[in-house]
Design goal:
192 residues; mainly alpha; 5 helices
Length: 192
């Protein structure tokens, strides 16, 4: 998804930059026509830019302490208008990049929150399943084992046989059923 979004963001950035160029041109034209704009907005940055540029060039060439003449008003107004236009384009482009960064960060936060919520849901489910498992284990331990059931069945048959033998006269008694026979068989034997 990031690969698909990146060219789109680039395209939007270039589109906004192209739209901001006419805006910058209008600002340049206004700067050239308006005296206030020219004197207080365009001239000071242009003179500063010219001074820094010339000072750097002179130091590179080895000249020290040479006085730098300021630009004439027309050249300074033109340079100031150009600087203002480029600054407008730069600010619009930088704003687009900042907005894209914020959007990406918001998407990352949302994704992390979704992952955290899924993780918490999984932990809750594991906890619930753990409690269910413990309850089932306790239930299985409470239920008597198969051998205990067989012992109880054998004891029941013995008791049944004793009860049946008390209720009948000794001459008509039949042999007691084997211990492996079920209790229902013993009950039918006693009735006969």
């Amino acid at each position: 998804m990031v690969v698909g979004a990146f060219p789109m963001a680039k395209l939007i950035y270039l589109g906004i930059r192209q739209v901001s160029k006419p805006l910058a041109n209008r600002i340049k034209d206004a700067a050239r026509r308006s005296e206030f704009f020219k004197n207080y907005i365009c001239l000071p940055p242009a003179q500063l830019y010219h001074w820094v540029e010339m000072r750097t060039k002179m130091r590179i060439m080895g000249f020290r302490g040479a006085a730098i003449k300021p630009l004439n008003e027309e050249a300074a107004a033109e340079l100031g208008a150009e600087l203002l236009g480029e600054a407008t384009i730069f600010i619009v482009g930088g704003g687009c990049l900042v907005l894209e960064y914020w959007r990406h960060q918001k998407q990352q936060r949302n994704k992390e929150e979704e992952q955290r919520a899924a993780w918490n849901a999984m932990q809750d489910e594991v906890g619930r399943l753990s409690l269910t498992l413990e309850a089932l284990q306790a239930h299985v331990q409470a239920v008597p084992s198969q051998s205990a059931l067989e012992e109880l069945q054998a004891q029941l048959q013995e008791v049944h046989a004793q009860v049946c033998s008390r209720g009948r006269p000794p001459s008509t008694q039949k042999a007691p059923a084997t211990q492996a026979a079920p209790a229902t068989q013993a009950a039918t034997t006693c009735e006969k």
